[in-house]
Amino acid sequence: MKNVKMLALAGATVAAISGNTFAADRTDLHATDYKWLQFNAMYSIGEKPDNPASGDQHNYLEMEFGGRSGVVDLYGYVDVFNLANESTDNGDKNPGSGTSKIFMKFNPRFSIDAITGKDLSFGPIQEVYFSTLFNWDGLNGEGVNSTFWGVGADVNVPWLGKTGMNLYGYYDMNAKEWNGYQFSANWFKPFYFFDNKSFLSFQGYIDYQFGADEDDNMFVPKTSSGGNIFFGLYWHSDRYALGYGLKGFKDVYLLEDEGGLVGLESTGWSHYLSATYKF
Q1: pLDDT tens across 58-114, in order?
Q2: What architecture does CATH give domain 34-278?
Q3: Where are the domains positioned within the chain?
Q4: Contact criterion met (CB below 8 Å) for 165 and 155
Q5: Residues 156, 166: Cα–Cα separation, whole Å
Q6: Is residue 211 within 8 Å of 225, Cβ to Cβ?
Q7: pTM for the complete prediction?
């Protein structure tokens, strides 16, 4: 599967630089604009990285949004953890723990097809993008503050349908340096429809970093590769959704599992429960 996806990305890159493209009708760039917004009440069990000496559970509220406007395709979310600011036996976001209260992902992509006015579709490649990704948490200068820049495409994958794929270069905003690459993919596949028009979906994503420099820091050592994968089963109606997600981690954020004096767990599985209201 990994080879198939990398070949698809290579095809997207070739299409982006090829002169053998066909003009597309883009007289109205906003003809297919859309937007969506939803709030997800969520509970996480075992999210990585975590400290084995503390708990591994927390509640959080997620504002998730996305859409298309002209040349810009956008996805993002903002998470607020431990909403009541409680101290619990199993909580990994307890007051005084030093953890961040907020995490944000912002993923704008810019359609090269729309910018150039050319149809760059080829085989399973439906549309080609200049892709960016920003990850921020609430810790200034020491938490997750990273940005990614690269090329992406919407790829028609058998059964899954349209799957967003991106290949990025990774820039560490804390260290102020480029350090490796990331491959990302995301999908949303409705697969069973009920008589009342609600449906079940298989949805998820992959974020895999590779080619980074290793760091033998005695407190928190870093590896050359790592990432996570999410598999979600959700029920959707027009206004509501309920879901369960299983997420696997392997040296996530390039943190060596149980490495160094801190000994953070960065490899393993976690569980997510969610209830959604759609606007």
Answers
A1: 999 999 999 999 999 999 999 999 999 999 989 999 998 888 999 999 999 999 999
A2: Beta Barrel (2.40)
A3: 34-278
A4: yes
A5: 14
A6: yes
A7: 0.87
